[in-house]
Write a structure and sequence with these properties.
Blueprint (H helix, E strand, L loop, with lengths): L9 E2 L2 E4 L3 H12 L4 E4 L11 E4 L2 E4 L10 H9 L4 E3 L5 E5 L4 E4 L1 H15 L3 H4 L10 H7 L4 H7 L4 H15 L8 H10 L4 H4 L4 E3 L4 H11 L2 E3 L4 E7 L2 E6 L4 E4 L2 E3 L10 E3 L4 H9 L7 E8 L5 E4 L6 E9 L3 E8 L8 H9 L7 E8 L17 H5 L10 E3 L13 H18 L2
Parallel strand pairs: 1-13, 2-3, 2-14, 3-10, 7-17, 11-15, 14-21
Antiparallel strand pairs: 4-5, 6-9, 7-8, 11-12, 12-13, 16-19, 16-20, 17-18, 18-19
The chain binds flavin-adenine dinucleotide.
């Protein structure tokens, strides 16, 4: 009889916590080897920080939106499932911080202005990331730079105010707060992975057919793995070669191993027995997902030019990108800064008018990933010293408890599904050696 609260309700060959790209990659790999894993997902949907949904009748991305041709694992998976990509629409005009407020440039002028600045900013990264896919290869050179924040690096360059703001607006956006949050080596690794030039980094603008979720759905379909939605894991206990996982509400699951594929920032919400090893405990305490990440979809009335805007740190909107023109208006994506009250339509309207004077909003939608209880942050970006302090230990299993997630990837970490897939492949390999 199923009565004892101590008895496990269900068992599986492996339990996977989280149905984002990392967890689903693990499931597909384990299923391919004949195992029957089970995914426990806290939300009532799959995808995690990828959320393809609708806004103003259009398919839109509430979380991550773009992939790039330099992302080899993503490209391999897209090819495997026959999913095509199309480049996103480019801007007709660009607003960048200038000497007196924002300055209007053509896209060519903007690239011409930004490219040498970023080359200077990342100077030396071609050496300390001699092999960007193996970030620890030049540990010797990293000792000098891994402690630097993006703000530290900006200070080293002694830039004129305009140049400072052009770089800082982006480093603060990626940091999800002040540029002192993110590590220079975090963004520098992305720069080298993309090809080591500002121009090459611009090719991260591909949209998969069916949205960012379509690849995940194809992987999950091949896996045939069941996903238990609304199953938020609260406790993971390993004892005598068996792992017991408890979800909110008290239901328990057991398996010979568990893969924790949640964002690093929510590890602190799960009670681990035995407790987390030092690197994992440090990551759980410091977080890797950036604190502030508010993505807005904005529908502006009428015919509106395809405008891109990037603003000085502290502005209500940090960045705005043009999306499709519809019959009644244009869609735009905006990243709200910490100073924007995104719940207040008047504040959003006012912020948009900074770039499009006289414009009026038909509607908008906002998602604050920093306040979301199952991510507690946006994309990941390593903090100063995290590369040398956490890696490679953070990828190691803790007994029969394994870890996956974009935040702890070696290559395109944090802000890219490429990293989630990479870490999922690695965790699946480890799981196979532990499976009975
Ligand atoms: C605004 C934004 C923009 C981004 N832009 C891009 C982009 O353009 N391109 C790109 O490639 N990437 C982008 N990213 C990053 C990308 O979304 C992530 O790197 C990737 O989706 C992370 O995958 P993951 O599987 O590691 O984690 P997640 O996708 O976060 O999946 C983890 C899963 O674990 C679940 N979970 C959490 N806690 C529990 C619990 N206690 N019990 C059970 N389940 C739990 C979560 O609900 C979630 O489904 C962006 C992210 C954000 C937020």
């Amino acid at each position: 009889a199923k009565s004892s609260s101590a008895a496990a309700d269900e068992s599986a060959d492996a339990l996977i916590i989280g149905a984002g790209y990392a967890g689903v990659t693990v499931a597909r790999e384990l299923a391919a080897r004949g195992l029957k894993p089970l995914i426990l997902e806290a939300r009532n949907r799959t995808g995690g920080r990828i959320w393809t949904d609708t806004f103003s009748g259009e398919q839109v991305e509430i979380g991550g939106g773009w992939v790039g041709e330099q992302q080899k694992l993503v490209q391999r998976e897209l090819t495997r499932y026959g999913i095509a990509t199309t480049p996103d629409i480019g801007p007709e005009r660009m607003l960048l911080p200038g000497d007196n407020g924002l300055e209007s440039l053509t896209p060519e002028e903007a690239v011409g202005a930004l490219s040498p600045l970023w080359s200077e900013f990342y100077r030396g990264s071609e050496n300390y990331f001699e092999r960007p896919y193996e970030p620890l290869h030049r540990k010797d050179l990293l000792q000098k730079v891994d402690g630097l924040s993006l703000a530290d690096r900006l200070r080293q360059l002694s830039l004129a105010p305009k140049e400072f703001q052009r770089l800082n607006s982006e480093t603060s956006l990626y940091s999800g707060g002040p540029s002192s949050i993110g590590a220079l080596t975090g963004m520098a690794q992305w720069f080298q992975l993309a090809g080591g030039t500002y121009e090459s980094s611009l090719s991260m603008n591909q949209k998969p057919a069916g949205g960012m979720i379509s690849l995940l759905k194809a992987m999950l379909k091949e896996a045939g793995t069941e996903v238990r939605l609304q199953s938020a894991v609260t406790r993971i206990t390993e004892s005598k070669g068996l792992v017991t996982v408890e979800v909110s509400g008290g239901k328990r699951y057991t398996a010979p191993l568990v893969v924790v594929a949640t964002p690093t920032n929510v590890w602190k919400d799960i009670a681990f027995h035995p407790g987390l090893p030092p690197a994992h405990a440090t990551a759980a305490r410091q977080g890797i997902g950036v604190p502030h990440s508010n993505k807005l979809w904005i529908h502006v009335r009428g015919r509106t030019e395809a405008l891109f805007a990037q603003t000085p740190e502290g502005s209500p909107i940090s960045m705005m990108l043009p999306q499709q023109q519809l019959s009644d208006g244009r869609l735009m994506v905006a990243f709200g800064g910490p100073s924007l009250d995104a719940e207040d339509p008047a504040a959003v309207q006012k912020a948009v008018r900074q770039f499009l004077p006289g414009s009026s909003l038909i509607r908008y939608r906002t998602m604050d990933w920093g306040r979301d209880r199952y991510s507690r942050g946006g994309w990941g970006l390593r903090r100063p010293n995290q590369l040398l302090n956490l890696f490679p230990q953070i990828e190691e299993p803790h007994g029969r408890i394994l870890f996956a997630g974009a935040d702890i990837a070696q290559g395109w970490h944090g802000a890219y599904i490429e990293g989630a897939i990479e870490s999922g492949l690695r965790a699946a390999q480890q799981a196979i050696t532990l499976a009975p």
